[in-house]
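#lab-general

N.A. 3:47 PM
ok so I finally got the sequence cleaned up, no stray characters, all 562 residues accounted for. can someone with queue access submit it? mine expired

B.Y. 3:52 PM
send it over

N.A. 3:53 PM
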Amino acid sequence: MKRAFTLLVATVVTAGNVLFAQSVDQGKKFFYYERWKSAQETFEKVLAANPNNIDAVYWLGQTLLELKDSVGAKNLYQKSLTQNGNAPLLLAGMGQIELMEGKANDARQRFETAITLTKGKDIDVFNAVARANVKARTGDANYAIEKLNQATAVKNFKDPETYLLLGDAYRKLIDGGNAVQNYTKALGLDPKLAAAKYRIGKVYLTQGNKDYFLPAFEEAVALDPAYTPAYYELFYYWYSRDVNKAGPYLDKFIANADQGPEQEYLKTDFLFSSGKPAEAKTRAEALIAQYGDKVNPRMYRLVAYAADTLGDANAAKTAMNTFFTKATEEVPVRGTDYEELAKINSKIPGAEAEVFANLEKAIAVDTVMENKLKYIGKAAALAKAKGDRNQEAIWLGKAYRMDPNPTQRDLYNYGFAHYQAKNYDSTIAIFKTYEEKYPNEIYGYLWSARAARDIDTALEMHIAAPEYAQLLDNAKRLDSTKYKPQIIESLRILAGYQNNVKKDKDSAIYYLQRILDVEPTDKMATQFIEALSKPAKSTTPATKPKTGGNAAGTGGAKPTGR
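B.Y. 4:20 PM
back already:
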């Protein structure tokens, strides 16, 4: 009888262990599908029945990390280690926490201890050590690769997860070739492993190669129609390109994902992108009312965009400013948000100054140079539209200095904006740079000369004449036919300078004659030459003619070159 009871207990315990194992496996399946809520609930149920189930503890900790609850994961691992101090999986999990805290040496010691305790024969422990180093920002991908390769040498090895992690480690090293090779090996062990196809797609997504990543994501859901990560990537890709293609992927994602607020947020986002701003705004406001302080802050941002689209700038401004106060690390303020607020402010009378202030903030927040230059371009265009040439020049200067590869046109626009703003000293400085960079273009010499002329209007400061002499020389050098107007302009200024300032009529006539060499029909040059060629009036009083008649004269006309 006693023997029969013992056998019965053994049978029940064995059945119970199988039940627990199946539950842990189910939780790991949820984890695989990135259904974190279901995974958490499953592991917690297992632990409620058996608090010492090491596998459940480890995977619950991993799930909490995916849910951004590093404090909860740390507390879980620490508590379990007090009772199971030599559990290799828990040592690996705690090492991951220490990597996240910047304690690389402590983490490495835990990893090595975990491997030693299993005599280097437990593939799950090798995988856990590698996973920690792949997931943690400061983790060592090369160390992960070393340990995973050791795992593949274990007798009877056939774990596709090891190859998935090898692929992840190589991705962390930005080695796409080896990453794809290892994901392909994982598929060799499990041809239905959608995660392997999905991660191959992620490699090509990083490279921007849609001819490869889109088919890979499609193949992933074909292998496993319940694999939500691939549905999300397909939805996200088409979201801003073709809402008709994005819609079915969103439906499949929601059908296979854990239900909760995030699914409602996605539906609301999609309403707006589908051209239904009023419906999107109503739904977002309802979610804000429903979830209160726990609502995802991006719903306030959506209300702002929708209200702006509907023409209610004041409501849009209020919603966007609220979003700024509620933004989090997970939902941060983006440069495009300040850009949108600047757009909203431009529609509100009296808020013009806020437009420029928010574009400044957009530049500061955004890390993408292309976006920064876009914001600056908008500010410069707005300043130009307002007729504020000085403000335009300031913004164009920011663009030129910030752009790692500014163009010739960028430098020209920067200098010309200063000229239009009557910032002549700055104009000359900028176009001197233009002369150095583009010595075979006329514009540097031309606008340096004209800015100098506008400073030295009477030519008495001896600033304009040297610049026009340089313009004349370079216009002749570059193309005397093409730049004939600039040659004539230079000769007029130099003639005026010689006559009015230097009091040298012969030199003035020389420059006027050169105008006629270039343009024989120039009446002004002809008239000035005639006037300057006449003898000067005598300073001695003339005897009054007996006839009483007066002699007519020109009075010595002076060419001004203006």
